[in-house]
Design goal:
Layout lengths: L8 E5 L15 H12 L4 E5 L11 E4 L2 H5 L5 E3 L5 H13 L15 E2 L3 H4 L4
Parallel strand pairs: 1-2
Antiparallel strand pairs: 1-3, 3-4, 4-5
Length: about 120
């Protein structure tokens, strides 16, 4: 199924430490990417970043708004500690609901929100 170019985008850090068994042993990193891609298919998309430069918050994901979300004032939302299925499920549910600017983060996802340094924020479209 083709993923819409204008839906919310989840950018998942997979570089130097996020998404590695060296830093997070016991986490199925490849499975995480696949679950997020499957869960957002048809309504959003998942992209991988080499490094989002927020290593202390690992594993980091950024949920960027859809066109509709941007028009409503939505901004990219940075999430820390994306390491478990509950968090993955909440990200998927948020993308399915429309993402930033359209829907509030579900469940406990708002507790994972953080603000990176301005220099880092400019690296994500």
């Amino acid at each position: 199924m083709k993923r819409p170019a204008n839906g919310p985008t989840v950018t998942l850090c997979r570089g130097c430490c996020c998404g590695t068994t060296r830093k997070h042993p016991g986490v199925d990193h490849a499975g995480q990417v696949e679950r997020l891609r499957e869960g957002t298919a048809g309504v959003g998309r998942v992209t991988l970043s080499d490094c989002l430069d927020a290593c202390a918050q690992s594993t980091v994901a950024v949920v960027s708004p859809s066109r509709e979300g941007r028009a409503a004032g939505g901004k990219p939302v940075w999430l820390l500690g994306v390491l478990d299925r509950d968090t993955e499920d909440e990200i998927v549910a948020w993308v399915q609901a429309g993402g930033p600017g359209v829907a509030d983060p579900p469940g406990m996802l708002d507790l994972r929100v953080f603000t990176p340094a301005r220099r880092i924020r400019t690296q994500v479209p």
